[in-house]
Predict the 3D structure of the following.
Amino acid sequence: MANVDRPNGFRPVKTLSGAPVTSLIRAIGVADGEDIFRGDIVNLESGLADPGATNDAAILGVAVGIGKVNADGIPLGPFNPDALMTSFYDDSASTHTDWVCYYVPADDVIFEAQTATALTLVVGDTCDLSDATGDSSSGQSRQEITTSSNADFTVVEIPHYVDNDPTAVWGRYWVMVTRAEQAFHV
Protein backbone atom coordinates (compact mmCIF):
# COMPACT_ATOMS: atom_id res chain seq x y z
CA MET A 1 0.00 0.00 0.00
CA ALA A 2 1.38 3.41 -0.96
CA ASN A 3 2.05 6.03 1.69
CA VAL A 4 -0.36 8.95 1.96
CA ASP A 5 1.04 12.45 1.51
CA ARG A 6 -0.17 14.20 4.67
CA PRO A 7 2.62 16.35 6.06
CA ASN A 8 1.67 17.76 9.43
CA GLY A 9 5.04 18.91 10.66
CA PHE A 10 6.31 17.32 13.83
CA ARG A 11 3.84 15.67 16.18
CA PRO A 12 4.89 14.91 19.77
CA VAL A 13 4.48 11.16 20.28
CA LYS A 14 5.98 10.39 23.69
CA THR A 15 8.75 11.26 26.09
CA LEU A 16 11.78 9.29 27.17
CA SER A 17 11.13 10.17 30.82
CA GLY A 18 7.54 8.93 30.71
CA ALA A 19 6.14 12.38 31.52
CA PRO A 20 2.93 13.29 29.68
CA VAL A 21 3.63 15.60 26.75
CA THR A 22 0.93 18.02 27.94
CA SER A 23 2.85 18.63 31.18
CA LEU A 24 5.85 19.90 29.20
CA ILE A 25 4.13 22.69 27.23
CA ARG A 26 5.83 26.08 27.58
CA ALA A 27 5.07 29.59 26.26
CA ILE A 28 7.43 32.02 24.55
CA GLY A 29 6.97 35.25 22.59
CA VAL A 30 7.03 35.10 18.80
CA ALA A 31 9.63 36.74 16.59
CA ASP A 32 8.62 39.26 13.97
CA GLY A 33 8.67 38.42 10.27
CA GLU A 34 7.56 34.76 10.02
CA ASP A 35 4.32 32.77 10.27
CA ILE A 36 4.26 29.91 12.83
CA PHE A 37 2.08 26.83 12.27
CA ARG A 38 1.13 23.95 14.60
CA GLY A 39 3.79 21.29 14.18
CA ASP A 40 6.56 23.68 13.12
CA ILE A 41 10.01 23.26 14.57
CA VAL A 42 10.70 26.54 16.39
CA ASN A 43 14.13 28.00 17.09
CA LEU A 44 15.25 30.35 19.81
CA GLU A 45 16.12 33.66 18.13
CA SER A 46 16.86 36.65 20.38
CA GLY A 47 14.74 35.13 23.15
CA LEU A 48 11.70 34.56 20.89
CA ALA A 49 10.25 31.66 18.88
CA ASP A 50 11.09 31.69 15.19
CA PRO A 51 10.11 28.92 12.75
CA GLY A 52 12.93 26.51 12.01
CA ALA A 53 14.68 26.38 8.68
CA THR A 54 17.02 23.85 7.14
CA ASN A 55 20.34 23.57 9.03
CA ASP A 56 19.36 25.72 12.02
CA ALA A 57 21.23 25.00 15.24
CA ALA A 58 19.09 26.41 18.07
CA ILE A 59 16.00 24.18 17.99
CA LEU A 60 13.75 25.04 20.92
CA GLY A 61 10.91 22.59 20.28
CA VAL A 62 7.70 22.09 18.30
CA ALA A 63 4.82 24.59 18.18
CA VAL A 64 1.59 23.09 19.52
CA GLY A 65 -0.53 26.24 19.76
CA ILE A 66 -0.73 30.00 19.49
CA GLY A 67 -2.27 32.38 22.01
CA LYS A 68 -2.65 36.06 22.82
CA VAL A 69 -1.30 37.98 25.77
CA ASN A 70 -3.26 40.48 27.87
CA ALA A 71 -2.41 44.18 28.31
CA ASP A 72 0.14 43.25 30.98
CA GLY A 73 1.92 40.83 28.64
CA ILE A 74 0.67 37.71 30.46
CA PRO A 75 -0.30 34.75 28.24
CA LEU A 76 -4.02 34.01 28.41
CA GLY A 77 -3.58 30.35 27.53
CA PRO A 78 -3.89 28.49 24.26
CA PHE A 79 -7.69 28.30 24.51
CA ASN A 80 -8.64 31.90 25.29
CA PRO A 81 -11.81 33.16 23.56
CA ASP A 82 -9.98 35.90 21.65
CA ALA A 83 -7.76 33.38 19.90
CA LEU A 84 -10.05 30.37 19.36
CA MET A 85 -10.41 31.00 15.65
CA THR A 86 -6.67 31.54 15.19
CA SER A 87 -5.09 28.34 13.97
CA PHE A 88 -1.62 29.76 13.26
CA TYR A 89 0.40 32.91 13.87
CA ASP A 90 -0.04 35.11 10.81
CA ASP A 91 2.77 37.66 10.91
CA SER A 92 1.26 39.90 8.22
CA ALA A 93 -2.01 40.32 10.17
CA SER A 94 -0.66 40.46 13.73
CA THR A 95 1.57 42.44 16.04
CA HIS A 96 4.11 39.89 17.26
CA THR A 97 4.26 41.36 20.78
CA ASP A 98 0.55 40.46 21.30
CA TRP A 99 1.13 36.73 20.76
CA VAL A 100 2.91 33.74 22.28
CA CYS A 101 3.81 30.37 20.85
CA TYR A 102 3.05 27.30 22.97
CA TYR A 103 5.67 24.65 22.33
CA VAL A 104 6.87 21.25 23.50
CA PRO A 105 10.62 21.39 24.27
CA ALA A 106 12.92 19.38 22.03
CA ASP A 107 14.74 17.72 24.92
CA ASP A 108 13.23 14.38 26.05
CA VAL A 109 10.45 14.27 23.40
CA ILE A 110 10.07 11.93 20.44
CA PHE A 111 8.30 13.42 17.40
CA GLU A 112 6.66 11.80 14.39
CA ALA A 113 7.49 13.30 11.00
CA GLN A 114 6.92 12.46 7.33
CA THR A 115 9.70 12.21 4.77
CA ALA A 116 9.87 14.62 1.85
CA THR A 117 11.57 12.00 -0.36
CA ALA A 118 12.06 8.25 -0.38
CA LEU A 119 14.55 7.49 2.40
CA THR A 120 15.93 4.23 3.66
CA LEU A 121 16.58 5.09 7.28
CA VAL A 122 17.14 2.72 10.18
CA VAL A 123 17.16 3.40 13.90
CA GLY A 124 20.21 5.53 14.72
CA ASP A 125 20.41 7.23 11.31
CA THR A 126 20.28 11.03 11.11
CA CYS A 127 18.05 13.22 8.97
CA ASP A 128 17.39 16.93 8.48
CA LEU A 129 14.53 19.39 8.50
CA SER A 130 12.89 20.07 5.15
CA ASP A 131 11.28 23.47 5.58
CA ALA A 132 7.99 24.33 3.89
CA THR A 133 5.30 26.95 4.40
CA GLY A 134 2.37 25.72 6.47
CA ASP A 135 -1.26 25.41 5.41
CA SER A 136 -3.02 28.70 6.22
CA SER A 137 -6.50 27.15 5.98
CA SER A 138 -5.85 24.39 8.55
CA GLY A 139 -3.02 26.03 10.49
CA GLN A 140 -0.97 22.85 10.16
CA SER A 141 2.75 22.76 9.45
CA ARG A 142 4.08 21.19 6.26
CA GLN A 143 7.63 20.66 7.52
CA GLU A 144 9.10 17.21 6.81
CA ILE A 145 12.38 15.33 7.20
CA THR A 146 14.86 14.71 4.42
CA THR A 147 18.38 13.35 3.82
CA SER A 148 21.00 14.30 6.36
CA SER A 149 23.60 16.97 5.77
CA ASN A 150 23.52 18.58 9.22
CA ALA A 151 22.14 15.80 11.50
CA ASP A 152 19.18 17.76 12.92
CA PHE A 153 17.37 14.57 14.02
CA THR A 154 18.09 10.97 14.94
CA VAL A 155 15.66 8.19 14.02
CA VAL A 156 14.58 6.38 17.19
CA GLU A 157 11.76 4.20 15.85
CA ILE A 158 9.95 3.30 12.64
CA PRO A 159 6.23 3.21 13.40
CA HIS A 160 4.40 0.12 12.19
CA TYR A 161 1.30 1.53 10.53
CA VAL A 162 -0.65 -0.29 7.85
CA ASP A 163 -0.08 2.60 5.43
CA ASN A 164 3.60 3.25 6.30
CA ASP A 165 6.35 2.00 4.01
CA PRO A 166 9.39 3.80 5.46
CA THR A 167 11.46 3.14 2.32
CA ALA A 168 8.99 4.93 0.03
CA VAL A 169 8.27 8.63 -0.38
CA TRP A 170 6.13 10.09 2.45
CA GLY A 171 7.18 7.43 4.94
CA ARG A 172 6.82 8.24 8.65
CA TYR A 173 9.54 8.06 11.29
CA TRP A 174 9.83 8.80 15.00
CA VAL A 175 12.75 11.15 15.58
CA MET A 176 14.50 13.11 18.32
CA VAL A 177 16.34 16.40 17.94
CA THR A 178 20.08 15.75 18.22
CA ARG A 179 21.80 17.32 21.25
CA ALA A 180 24.01 19.49 19.05
CA GLU A 181 20.94 21.11 17.47
CA GLN A 182 19.02 21.82 20.69
CA ALA A 183 18.87 25.33 22.16
CA PHE A 184 18.96 23.94 25.72
CA HIS A 185 20.04 20.67 27.32
CA VAL A 186 18.65 19.25 30.54
